Amino acid sequence: MKENKMDNIFWNDKFSTTPGLYGDQPNEFLKANIQQMPPGKILLPGEGEGRNALYAASLGWEVTAIDQSETGKNHCLKKAEKLGLHVDYHVCDARIHIPETESFDVVSLIYFHLPKEISTEVYSKFEKALKVGGTMIIEGFGKKQLQYQSGGPKNLEMLYDLSGLKSNFQNIKWHFEFEGTIHLNEGIGHVGEAHVIRLVGEKIKL
Questions:
Q1: How far lies 160's CA from each of 7, 16, 74, 146, in Å?
Q2: β-sheet bridge partners, residue 195
Q3: How far apart are CA 158 and CA 117, in angstroms?
């Protein structure tokens, strides 16, 4: 996720010079989970050019996407128009955007990597946005990703640690956990062997 003006410039340039950086197809883990659910409201932070948003919308989901890249939003909405789909896309800083409390059936963080100093605050907002009984879906790079060349932050603190990541979500009961190596084939931005964390959980009332 892009969290300051310099990152905004960086990602706008990335998406301008390399459109389709992460491909047009949805993330396989997200796809496998939401395609078996009845469509509802889904929140997709760090959505970039909209590959996951467009897929979810094609299944009938009411999609809200968040990112700091205006270029990413423009690419997404142009594709949505051609496909006859609707995506509610907000260009903003995740620290400032406050989604409505308990309003989403699914919140999905796909390669949504944050600086350590703001991660707890931002994750808390997205957990609050999830309905009780709703589903949290996460896939992102683990700490060992620095050994691979398939993408992701080069800052160790921005990479996921399974127990540390789970501890950010106090009201989620996790029922699927994975940490290991997979092969990524997502555009030219995520290609090759990668160390990833995957989580699926349900929001509960404590």
A1: 20, 28, 29, 11
A2: 181
A3: 10
Are 97 and 90 within 8 A, CB to CB? yes
Tokens read off for 127 = 């957990």
In DSSP notation, the chain reads: ---SHHHHHHHHHHHHHSTTTT-SSPPHHHHHHHTTSPP-EEEEET-TT-HHHHHHHHTT-EEEEEES-HHHHHHHHHHHHHHT---EEEES-TTT--PPTT-EEEEEEES----HHHHHHHHHHHHHHEEEEEEEEEEEEBGGGGG--S---S-GGGSB-HHHHHHT-TTEEEEEEEEEEEEEEETTTEEEEEEEEEEEEEE---
Task: For residue 150, give the nearest of 110, 182, 114, 197 by alpha carbon.
Answer: 182
| pLDDT tens readout for residues 51-103 | 999 999 999 999 999 999 999 999 999 999 999 999 999 998 888 888 889 99
Whole-prediction pTM:
0.92
* Residues facing residue 160 across a β-bridge: 142
